[in-house]
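Query structure, 218 C-alpha cells:
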C-alpha cells in the first residue's frame, strides 16, 4: 500500500485537535487542513442563503460552488471574513447536520483531498483517516472527557466554567458527540489503525510532542 505523506487527526468537537494539528504542521513544515471547516462553511453558507440544513439537494449545490478562500489563519466566505463566525456551537450543529448528507460529503471530498501536495499535510476532522486520507502515514484519534472539553471551550471564549452558560456549552458538546457517533454515513469512531490519544490530562505542548514522536516512529 502506498502511504500518503499525511498525518490524519480525528476526534470529537472541542478536543483540541485543530490546535494540535496546526502546531504539528508548523513543526514539520507541512500544510494544514481543517476538514471540518468546510462543513462549517457549508452550514453557514446555507444559513445565509436561507437553505435548510436537511435539504440535501440544495445544500449539495452550495457545497459544490462554496466560495471559500483560506488565507493564512483567516477564512473568507464570499469575500467576508468568517473565521470566528464558523466556530459557534450553532454552526457546529449545522456542520454535523450537513455532514450526514451523502451528496454534500461527496461534493467536499475531492476538495479536501486537493489540499495534499508533495510538501506534506496534517489534516484534522472526524473522518480524515477513514475516508479522506485512508492511506495516511499516521492516524490519530484525539479525544478528551466531555466536561474537560467544555471547560476548554469556556476558557477560550472567556466565560466561567460553571453556571447556565457553561451548562449550555457542555450540553451542546454532548449533543454534537451523540449526533456524530450515530450518523449513518462515516460515524465518528476510532479506526482500528488509529492511535488513541486522550488529552484529558495533557497540555498542548505535551500533546504536540507525543504526535511528533509517533510520526518519527512510522
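Result returned for the query:
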Amino acid at each position: 500500500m502506498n502511504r500518503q505523506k499525511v498525518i490524519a487527526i480525528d476526534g470529537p468537537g472541542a478536543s483540541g485537535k485543530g490546535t494540535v494539528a496546526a502546531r504539528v504542521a508548523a513543526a514539520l513544515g507541512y500544510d494544514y487542513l481543517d476538514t471540518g471547516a468546510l462543513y462549517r462553511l457549508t452550514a453557514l453558507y446555507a444559513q445565509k442563503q436561507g437553505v435548510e440544513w436537511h435539504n440535501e439537494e440544495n445544500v449539495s449545490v452550495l457545497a459544490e460552488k462554496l466560495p471559500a478562500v483560506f488565507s493564512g489563519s483567516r477564512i473568507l466566505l464570499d469575500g467576508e471574513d468568517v473565521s470566528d463566525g464558523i466556530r459557534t456551537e450553532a454552526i457546529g450543529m449545522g456542520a454535523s447536520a450537513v455532514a450526514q448528507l451523502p451528496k454534500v460529503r461527496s461534493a467536499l471530498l475531492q476538495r479536501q483531498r486537493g489540499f495534499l501536495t508533495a510538501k506534506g499535510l496534517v489534516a484534522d476532522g472526524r473522518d480524515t483517516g477513514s475516508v479522506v486520507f485512508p492511506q495516511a502515514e499516521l492516524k490519530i484519534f484525539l479525544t478528551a472527557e466531555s466536561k474537560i472539553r467544555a471547560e476548554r471551550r469556556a476558557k477560550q471564549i472567556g466565560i466561567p466554567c460553571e453556571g447556565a452558560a457553561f451548562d449550555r456549552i457542555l450540553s451542546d458538546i454532548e449533543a454534537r458527540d451523540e449526533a456524530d457517533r450515530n450518523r449513518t454515513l462515516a460515524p465518528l469512531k476510532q479506526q482500528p489503525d488509529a492511535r488513541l490519544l486522550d488529552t484529558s490530562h495533557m497540555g498542548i505542548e505535551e500533546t504536540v510532542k507525543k504526535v511528533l514522536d509517533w510520526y518519527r516512529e512510522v
